[in-house]
Every structure is written in structure tokens, then in C-alpha cells.
Amino acid sequence: MTSDPSPFSDRTVLLTGVGGDIGATYLSGLVQAGANVVATDLPGLGEAGRALTSAASDTGPGRAVFVECDITDEKGVRRAVDTAIGEFGHLDSVVNNAAIYRTLGGKRPLVELAEADWELVLRVNVVGTWQVIKAAAPHLAVTGQGRIVNIASVVSRNGAPGFAHYVASKAAVEGLTRSAARELGVDGTTVNSVSPGLVDDAATRELNSEEYLRTAAISRAIPRAMVPDDLVGAVMWLAGPTSGFVTGQTLIVDGGGVFA
Ligand SMILES: NC(=O)c1ccc[n+]([C@@H]2O[C@H](COP(=O)([O-])OP(=O)(O)OC[C@H]3O[C@@H](n4cnc5c(N)ncnc54)[C@H](O)[C@@H]3O)[C@@H](O)[C@H]2O)c1
Q1: Looking at the whole model, is its pTM more than 0.90?
Q2: What are the chain's domains?
Q3: What is the mean pLDDT of the chain?
Q4: In this structure, what are the phi and psi dihedrals at residue 28, rounded to the nearest 5 degrees?
Q5: For the segment 151-195, what is each residue's pLDDT rounded down to a tens digit?
Q6: Cβ-proximal residues to 53 (8 Å cutoff; 6+ apart), any chain
Q7: 146 lines ligand 1 (CB under 6 A)
Q8: Distance from the CA of 228 to the center of ligand 1, in angstroms?
Q9: Ligand 1 midpoint to CA 149 (Å)
Q10: Is 255 left (phi over 0), alpha (psi -120 to 50) or beta?
Q11: At what angle do helices 74-88 and 129-143 cross, to 10 degrees?
Q12: Cα dihedral sign, 138-121-178-196
């Protein structure tokens, strides 16, 4: 008896920001579901990125390759998209996960932020996300069932003291999602956001106190710490073939901390 093929077999996914805990978790989930993944992160993370993709490929059944790519660099982004086409023949889904988060450098009152802080965060989190969408969209259109999943954040609903520029950037990602959904729907491409709550990962622990994490955990309808694995199902559904009539939406995944 043969088992049903995975919805991700023969699907190619471009995943950015694989170097963080959450990106690495998406990579494992996708490869284990049979997807071929072009996984990217900043130039300089090449060795770590190749180790991640090689370990993920070993667990199969999908295969992953690593491409160094700064998402604000148009040529680098094009190289990542070309790798998807060259290695796997087509590009079906994009998970825009890369962002300035861990490297925010701590909480700062908005009156202490410099213009350069805003420019960097908006450039990477918003312009970089757009660059990836721009390069991928024509290839997604070829399949007629392209999927784009932009990782936003629940902080854009409630705000978060100390991160005004980051919060604004994630609100912009939601707006970009809705506009891209309107423009690309004609090609059968869906564009949605996933908004995670506070994930108990290395990045969050660098930026927040233990007490802050504990308060977030107990304020949820499901009162526990959130882990990267909690995001995988939602991201994979929106990146996969069965969500084809859902577009322009933001799916909050936070154990019921924020209802919107
Ligand atoms: N951790 C959380 O609690 C949380 C909550 C809500 C949303 N998010 C979002 O989830 C995503 C992953 O978060 P994380 O905790 O793994 O963060 P992280 O900072 O650890 O990982 C982000 C990754 O993006 C990469 N990156 C940064 N700038 C880049 C650029 N210019 N080009 C290419 N890659 C770049 C980094 O090198 C890093 O590997 C981010 O979009 C983040 O904003 C995280």
C-alpha cells in the first residue's frame, strides 16, 4: 500500500532568515513534509546555513540548499530565486521570515531612537520583504498556485514599548501583504501574513526579561510559553496548496493572547 503524497512533494519553497531559531524550525518542517527548500540568510552565515540545509536534507524526504542573500540586495535576491528555478525547476512558495529582530539591540524609548535605526529596520523588514516578493512573483505566477507568507508580528496590534520602529515595520508588512494580495491574486498567487506572539527563542531571550516572558505566557488563553514549533502548521498551510482561496489575511498564532 502506498501512502498519500505530501502536499509539499514537488513544491519548491524560498525561505528567508533560516539562521534564526524560527527559520530553522520552518526549514525542518518543510523538508520533512517533502518540500525542496532554497534557504537563505545574510552573507557571512554561509557555513552555518549550509550545515542547517545539509542536516535538514539528511532527514528528507525534501532537499534544501543554502544561498547567501541579503534581502535588501536586489541581485542577491534574484540569485536565490534563480537557484530555486535552476535546482528544482519551479518556485511555488515564499516564506518571508528574515527580519531585524534579534539584532534590534535591546529596548529603547522612541525618543532615543535615531533615524538610522528606523532606516535599517524599515529597509530590511519592509523593503527587503518587497524585494523578495518582486523577484518571486513572476515565477509564482507560472504555477498558477503561488503562495507568499510574510511573517509579521502580533506586536503591531497592541504595540510594544521599546520597539517603535520594529512594531511599525511589522504593521507595514501587513499592509504590504494586503496590497500584494490584490495585485497577485489574478495569477492565482495568495499573499498572507502570519503574526507570531512572543516566541521563547534565543532572539527573544536576548531582548526581554524572564519576567516579561512569564507574563506573556500566562496571559494567553493557552497559558504556556510559545515555541517555534507552534508556528509551523500555520505557515505550512498558508504556503501549501490547500489554502488557495485565502488571501490578504493575517493569521495570529499566539495561543490566544490577542483576539483580532
Ligand atoms: N521571536 C519572536 O518572538 C517573534 C515574534 C513575532 C515575530 N517574529 C518574527 O519571526 C521572524 C523570525 O524571528 P527570529 O526570532 O528567528 O529572529 P532572528 O533575529 O533570530 O532571525 C532573523 C533572521 O533574519 C536574518 N536577517 C536579518 N537581516 C537580514 C537581511 N538583510 N537579509 C537576510 N536575512 C536577514 C538574520 O540573520 C536571522 O537569521 C522574524 O520576522 C521576526 O520578526 C519573531
Answers
A1: yes
A2: 12-252 (3.40.50.720)
A3: 96
A4: -60, -45
A5: 999 999 999 999 999 999 999 999 999 999 999 999 999 999 999
A6: 18, 27, 37, 39, 64, 65, 66
A7: no
A8: 12
A9: 14
A10: left
A11: 30
A12: positive
